[in-house]
Structures
1.
Amino acid sequence: MVIYGVALLAACMLAGNVIGELIGIAIGVSSNVGGVGLAMLLLVFVVYRLQKAGCLDVSSRRGVEFWSSLYIPIVVAMAASQNVVGAVTGGPVALVGGLVVVAVSFALVPVIARMGKGKYAVPLDDIEDERGVRDE
Amino acid sequence: MNERLLDVFASNGLITAFAAVGLLMLVCNLVSKHLTAGRIHGSAIAIAVGLVLSYIGGVSTGGEDGLADVALFSGIGLMGGSMLRDFAIVATAFGVDVEELRKAGLNGVVALFVGIIVPFFLGGAIAYAFGYTDPVAVTTIGAGAATYIVGPITGTAIGASSDLIALSIAIGLVKSISVMIVTPMVARTISLNNPSAALVFGGMMGTTSGVAGGLAATDPRLVPYGAMTATFYTGLGCLLGPSVLYLVVRALLGG
């Protein structure tokens, strides 16, 4: 049933966020620490176990895949509800500071990405073929 | 009669949002295909248009939630709010390659620390150059250069005034919005085309909305990797900001 997949996803998100809050409380921080990331790891792990046990049928998977495929439209809605005015009218410190920080951070990405095992990272295949499948 | 018809949209906010965003994506995909010959992804255009609509919504209503402050589009706020966004982000983990996580895990952790410390001191230095020489001000603005959540939490913890906190939110907003726009443009230059680099990217940028929007516009398959590290960033930033980093700033400036 589709709802099994959706419920599994919901349970992982809630469990991840509860653990994230607990970590936050434990180290005395007033924010959630990695709740969503932990939820993702949990989902990866649970799906792996369920698939091995043969408990995840196609329709349950569809419940998760549906939400994952709604990701981009949700991000577009997120972009449409940002406080852009606040960013633009924040004054020169905010504007200069924000832009310089972003530029430097971008420049550091390849430096760190190539450390250690990252040297051997292989680019994903060209996106065009993947897109064709996705758009259907 | 007009009012009753408008009410159909306003009272079905989330459904209106689905229809409106779907229409927006359709138009943007057509623009991408026919006007840019597919060179700029439809999702990148849609995100940019979303930000412009946000600006218009903000100017016309004076609110903080962009287009979502316009009554007709209030559902956009629910659809793009943190609940559904995080739900969809978690769902993308369905396609994650565990091997890739294992390979780049350590780089991701390094990126988290560098990604918090470098923007913090850079932001602090710029604040200093603009005349904010007080350690509390430098720390709050520097923390805002991490994310617009780390800024106010750090500022509140060390007793910053509300105008400083507003400034730290503004610098964080500039960061998150420019990450959304710039990522697809520079992705090729910084080799952001594989899961390991995406993990590092998420840790380096930290802003969940910036990373989510930027990667979605670059290559949706990279989203889960970037999002996974980015979600640890704010928590780590809130831990380091008011403690270690504040103490370092105080030692440097002698406050």
2.
Amino acid sequence: MSLTLYLIAGLFLPLFPLSMLFNQMFARLRHPWLRVLLLLAWPQIGVLLLSQAAAPVPDWFAGWALLSAAFYAYRAIALREVGLWIGYIATSAWALLWIGVVEPGLHHLLALGFSLPLAFTALLTGFLEQRLGAAHTALGGGMAIAAPRFAGLFVVAVLAAVATPLFPNFFSLLATLLSPASLSPLFGLGLMLIWLLWTWSGIRLLQGIVVGSPVRNGLQDLSMTATWVYSAGFVGLLLIGINMGGVLL
Amino acid sequence: MERLILAVIALPLMTALLTHLLANRLGRNVARISITGLTATFVVAAVLLWHAISKPGTHEIILGQTWGHLLYDPLSAVMGLLVSGISLIVHLYSRRYMAEEAGYARFFILLGLMTANLLILVAAGDLITLMIAWHLIGVLLYLLLGQDTRSPSAYRFGFWTLFTHRIGDLPLVLAAVLLFNAYGTWSLSEIFQALSTDSSAKTYLGMSLPDLTAGLVALSAFIRSAQFFAHTWLPYTMSGPTLVSALMHAGIVNSGGFLINRFAPLFVESGDVLHAVFVVGLVTAIIGSVLMLTQHDVKKALGYSTMGQMGFMIMECGVGAFSLAVYHLIAHDLFKGTLFLSAGGIIGEARKDDGVPKEDLYTFVVERKPARQRRPWLLMAAITLAVPGIILFLAHYLVEQAFFEKQGAVVLLFFGWITGAQLIFATHRMRTENLTRLFTLILVSFTVVVLGYTLIAHAFDLFLYPDPAFRARIYEAAGIDLIFFDLLVVLVTGVIVLGWLFTYYAEQQRLTERSWYHELRRRFYRAISRELYVSDAYAWLSRQLIAGANRVNTIMRWH
């Protein structure tokens, strides 16, 4: 019974190939707020399911999770479409929740830490999709000149998504590293490799969207109000991260 | 007074925030806010250093329960003044230098954030704060290098820098996690205290924990300080603003030396790691210097010169001369910063006059100047061997007589001797109208440098590590078996002396004109000019990895 529950949880804390369901769903959702909702709720269902299981998670699940996380982190380095990239990074990050299984309350917080920065990035990506039809590097190059306010926020969003320190997912990742499973060198090194791949993929994406001469001229930038709202959101994210650092570590 | 360290960190952060808020209103005048803030930071840092000298001691300022601890000790006081000083110079220089560039305010905001981050790094009193600051250096540097958002090449090399820095972050994170799991605290002072009481008790997978964690910290320092195999980012970041190059080469790249000094209580428990540190530094110093000599581009040559200097700094740590490494990084900061900031002017002058000496016949017949000459090679060879040795011996004898009992000191003395000898050897190769004057100048400046170096390094040792027992333990940890050490010194001396003799002989016998020599030289030059193919290998590997990921994604239909 527990095994069935774990396998169902494997859909929500995505384990390959069960992870394909989430990625297919995420790719089909076009509305930014629906994406945000999915990013915030999906792993929480998985954590809830895990907390309902009677027996502890078998050890081999942690290995499966690490391989799934590494697989999606590796695949993300070739991506050029921001929406797909968010889905892959989310899959990679949530799979790590199998490794850092802690008491249910903290586990929900850990999952939220991974989801929040990605949700912000998804929301901001809506701007590109609205203006250009797609958030793809082939369409959106040179944003630093074409839409400087958006570009500045997008840089912060991508850095937040790849677990740059002080954002919540950095502390979630660090808490995962402190879990007993991560004390094995394979897991410790694996987690570090995954983190490195996230950065690689994120920076490649940034360079495709932000750098260079603008692909299209006359693009309307984010309004000042929206810029202030997003900026306040990122400051909030930093404060949540700093607070999480105190709670999780 | 100790709490002033908070002001040192807060001031550049506040100036960055104010610059952001007032950029539209003040236009180019916004730079004044940054410069005023940095001047105040520098003054407060100077006051703190003065206080640290007059009342030595270590104080911890605790801002958060788990993390957010700041250390006020001699190391953080010295480094704080250095960081704020270099940053102030860069700020002052940037005011006009960047005036025509787009993103003027952004540049000052990032400079302010980088300064604050570096100041947090040098004052970090716990592993989390240290890790965060260590990590953010790479991120901020990436953004600074990408100041020109139109330039894909600037971003490409910026990415290279960030990626290498990220690789360098990972061993430090692993070391921090292992130390936390072993001692149950993130506080550096508590960990060092625990280490000094039961260093041998903790193991991980059968390995001594101090050895393992010191190895990881050293690895992190190697990557950040551009040691061989992790050096490729350093000479290629010249597409960014010259000021960022100055900041990077004069400050950021030195952070490896700082890290090893910060973890000194860990390294004294792991002598084997110090030996590895010495070897890595030595290899980097040699390869960096060789690569520097083959560059045609002034800034790239400076980049490789930094690599060689970093190798020497890491090597100093490896022989136990930790405080000397701090002095070295300060000296390197100052002279490399000056070189980078004046590089533009020199390139401009070179466009008017290439400065390449003309042929002897030309100067004699056309310019009617006397022919330049060389001294006899045998005399020069004798001077080469003897003079630097005598100067170095006297300098150390006058400053600290017990110096020769430390193996590390002997190794450094040895390198000083080689450097001095190489300098004299170079004067033999030079052709000049007044060789005696040139030679005297070199000799006098060498004596002044060596005496100053020895005297200041000794003062640094007393200031940074006031406990004589701890100083002795560092040298002891870095030492090796005495017979083996002596044999090694004799062997290396023999090889070097034979090398010099061969070079003099080869010049006399005109061996350089033979075909086998040309072929050998051509092959060596090809390998060096391709920078030993290290960058090519990395570029190939990254292309393969991305192509592989693309293939997998296509097979998986992107789900």
3.
Amino acid sequence: MNARVVFALPWRGQHQQQPWVMALVALGMWSGAALVLHTAGPRWPAGWLAAGVVLAFWLAAMGVLLGSTIRLALEARRLCLPGLERALAVSVVLKAVALLTVTAIPLGILSAHPAPLTELLAIGLAAGFAYAVLPFWVVVLALILLPLVQGLAAALHWRAMAPQDPHFVVVCVAFVVPAVLLSAWNWRRVLKRAHGPIGWLSRPIMLFSSWTGPRSSFLPMSTVLSLAMGRSGLQVPQWLQPQVALRAAGPADPLRGLRVALGGPHLPLTRTSLLRRVGAPAGVIAVLALVNLPLLVYQGRVSAVVRALLALVPIFGLGIVLMIGTLMRATHLLKRWRLAGGERAVLALLPRSGTPTEQAARLRRVLLGGNRLRQWPLIAAAVLTEALFSHDLNRTLLLALVLGLAPAGEAAVVYSVLGRVSVPSWGYGLMTALGQGVFIAGLNVVTVPSGPALAWLTHAVFAGTMLCYLGFATLSGLGRRALRNLPHPYLGLS
Amino acid sequence: MSESSASSTPLAAQGLWHTYGERSALRGVDFTVETGSVLGLIGRNGAGKSTLIRALLGLLVPSSGCTLVLGEPALQLTDRVKERIAYVPQQPESFPWLTAVQMLEFLGRFFPRWDGDFARTTLSRWEIPAGRPLARLSPGERQRVELIRALACRPDVLVLDEPAAALDPVARRELLREVALRAGENGCTVLFSTHIVSDLERVASQIALLHEGRLLLHCDLDATKERYARLWLPPRHAEAAPGAALSRRVHGDGSLTLVVGRGARGEWPAAVQLDGARLDALGLEDLFVEIAA
């Protein structure tokens, strides 16, 4: 294998269009960061930090992608392919170094703070890689402990946690070195167990969605979604398996019948099952609150911090829950509708399920009508919180617009799928990436303190939101029209 | 197709074309399945068998042509017809979130002729884990659950797309016995696609051979040996080879091997009589290989 092949290896485990999409997004982000650094000057002293943080998140995403090649390495070990594992490891290291260098050098030239910028980028890359490769429970524990450490640093007035501090390099080394070493250790540990079951204690998050094979998810979020959904419940512990409430589902109650048939997030569950499934995430939230709140109280700055948290946590939390729920349902529909041997064929030939017009109407009611309960209360709660805490009509309206992307995007996916509008996988990927980007940027804009420095970002979010609405409306319209002309709604995408 | 014959024909296709992008999967297929027959649809991978079956059942919109199920357009089936047909896809992947018992109970509510006892006893006889989600069953178990679903609604028309692909020999034998029983005792019409020629010989009354989207032969199984043979012609008679052959292979020395059929009056092509020509009878598997290779 020559150096070029080795370098390109991890991309061979990704979707074909992914490197190009990533390259485009990278170009956009680098240009944006360069623009910020060039124009920020004395009017926005923290501009370099904002650019650094954004690019660190970007490198974290790249780190996840590099880490996701553990699947490819695992397949190579299982198939006894000679040399591939070693080449992959070399390739990952080469790519990590190249990514860091290519990002840090131009930023360093443009900025007066090259060292902390490089440290931030290194932390982002290492965090992304560790997220993908470390055991899942370690990642969850780290996410729980992170605010604890931040709180502790604030309580002890330890300023080294801030990138502006000259001692930030210590934090960087203390994070990056153990993260990389532990990731390498778990990488080897997982590969050693390739021919047997990989236990929960060492299984990285990337291997929870093992049914997708060595190809990694289009976006890191997809992996989280896959984990949340489980492969039809395969990876979910027995006690969390959905218990279907089959009572009356059938011709007597066609909507309930359709929910059983569509499965996944639409499945009607028994009360016990519902309680268990809601109880688990509620427990995690309670643990997070219990870990963090006493520390905040100890800091003696309860009122200010709690006030900030009261606004930020619900808006961000509700927004993220809204986004994950939407993506989960859209992904589920796309996946099921692509299967030639799935329930679509059964539904198409099912007697006593209504005329094609009735079938299409019921599909719309189940797939979109249920969102009145799933999405609108979340949107209303987030917008109300923003209105109460910011007293800023523009920001509240922007939040409402951004959150409205979730139902609009879901409607676009549902209509395009049911109407068999030909959208390639990369098209959905690009739509999801743009939608997610605008959505998260929008949540940031309305939750961080506003100022002239953020005005450009607000305008960018508004423009991006409008662009997304335009795309979603076009897709929905095409799908609706096509659906009306189809002989029945179960023709599917294949 | 006349209206009266169409309404009594379980499955029919006329001038069926279908393309996936640039590739033609079906090229002008005309096809009928007679009432009470067990028709084995045979062809290589990618020959168009699954596409034909899905078009026949209205699960895809063909590029052109029409298909009828029990006299109704396949894309606009009414409940009257849906109650009488059952289909098992090549790779059953439906309802992975339900257990076998839940799926059968749920779907049974839609079919007025549902045979719950059959579903229960066959599940137990075929040793399918009743309480395990379908996602956790092996491909063979999953296929058997789908077969139970299809048989329990007591269909008049049963369409099986490679039903034996994931089954072990014992399960395959049981399936074929069940198919033969349904066809023999209940007059059920069966269309099944397969690669396994021995399965076809065991139960099929008719065969249809699909090759590169074209239906090359469609006749009674018993008649294939009588009607088709392999003709070898020496190089000097290559020019005299009959035009209407099912397959034609030219060898390195210029000699020809063709699969030929009898004419309307039962006669072989005139080339059979040529000096040095050789006519060999073909078994079903040889016939398939000769045509499809």
4.
Amino acid sequence: MQITLPQTARAIRQSRAPAAIRRLAASLGAEGAIGLALLVAFAIVGISAPLLAPYDPAAFSGAPLERPSADHRLGTNDVGQDILSELIAGARISLAVALGAAGGTVLLAVLIGGAAGYAGGWIDAALMRVVDVLMALPQLPLLILITALLGAGLGQMVLVFAALFWPGTARIIRAQVLSLRRRGYVAQARGFGAGPVYILRRHILPAIGPLIVFGLVTAAARAVVFEAGLAFLGLGDPTAKSWGLMMRYALNLPGLLLSDRWLWWLLPPGLCVTVLILALNLLGIGLEHRLDPRLKRP
Amino acid sequence: MKSRFALTLVSLWAVLTLNFLLPRWLPGDPLAALLDPDSSSYVYNAEVRGALEAYYGLDRPLGEQYAAYLTGALGGDLGRSIRLNQPVSDLLREHLSWTLLLTLSALIAASLLGVIAGSEAAWRRRSAADRLLVVTGVLASNAPVFFTGMILLILFGVELRWLPLAGGRTPFARYDNALEQVRDYGAHLLLPALTLTLALVGSKFLLVRNSVIGVLGEDFMLVARAKGLSPRRLKRHHALRNAIVPFVHHLTAHAGFAITGALFIETLFNYPGMGRLIFESVVARDYPVIQGVFLVVSVLVLCANLLADWLTARLDPRTQEA
């Protein structure tokens, strides 16, 4: 079944989106709503990839370097794999890396930032100096060095991303926890004999919820950029055909740019990476405005 | 400022130490494989193995190795490239100037464009031109550099054939005069620099636009306007001058991003800078060179950050109190 864009738009209008979704879109602003919609679209493609892809992306389903045809909408690559199927399967890899890295980053940021803000004193001072130093280091060369030594597996890459990305978010969370800790209602809860675990769970975590969401989105955007970049440099996981790796393989073909092959082999993965990054960053902008209404563009 | 300086020194030490420790912590060091009985490239001849260990100082205690490494690195000795059998410091020197040329020209172009477009857009806030520029700015600062670069390469290098596809100069070219040489270098620089400029200009434009808009609401702007100053003078001497402090901070602090972007762009355009060097070293698993690039880029970024703080303190005395 083919679904065209006007049909989809009509369907959304007729469905009269629930009030909750409309409210969310309104509070995120135009940028955030566009970003969220694009992200949901990518997620749907990623989740249903095996159903959507016309072929097994790893199977040699055609002759090498076929031009686009009814059988292979985006042609085939240099070993005869269907490019459209690779593209759809690539969404899974990018999203998995984004999700993993974002989750790891925020987990570390909440644990370390929360500990620093809640404990205060020398623990806070020491942790924040570590944050300062880590934030001063240039990330890409460090990433290249670590992945070159560690070897490239997606899982390892996600761990390295989390280990490098947490300081920025940790600093924001620490500041928020620090200010929350001094609020009256938290002090009162403590006066009634509430333990630190109860206060963290009941009063601090809900209040830093929006910061956590924002941290997730920014870390995801960075993870997508760096994964594509590392794969593009030939440092990605060679068994996970991501969009960056597709571009690397395409560029490895001698004289790729001299024929029009780049149109269906190089351009689509590049566009996918770009739009995914754009979606995440737009959502980030929307969330930032929601967190701090003063940032709203005058 | 003093604490910033201390932070830079500590970060520099962290970079040096990471550079020393990472290859020793992480698997994948080709040298370690030669000495590891479980690896396939284990050197069975004990005499050769001993000589290797002694040559690279691996038989000494870790602390001693660390001290030797630090003194070597501070003296400019970064080891030898496995691939090219040249001192790493020579390779870095050779490639650094290309990266600096690319990064600095893009930073200058992006700053000029960003300041001019940003302040004009702020004065014409909410006009069609302003909206268009904002959307372009958001798009340009989000697209990954290797994608923008690819599009420009295909457009200007392949389809229109206006500019050379790759390299930093025409191979084997002999220049009759300096002008010819500058033209050749410039033609090769143009596309990579344009790519990097596009990647950098978006955030600069948005920053200048927003800070000029912020300044426009200040009381001193009202007074200046009431004095009957010309719009030109208002724009240049009152609005822009006050909006420039956050821009200067952003500019230098953003240098790290610029150098990172340059690494990708050089790979794409085969430009003979540090990016090309690190790419070729990664392919050949030439660890001393990868480490050297990491060290040099880190030092550049740390210096740029320090410069950012110093300039901000000089330009805006209010920040000195804090």
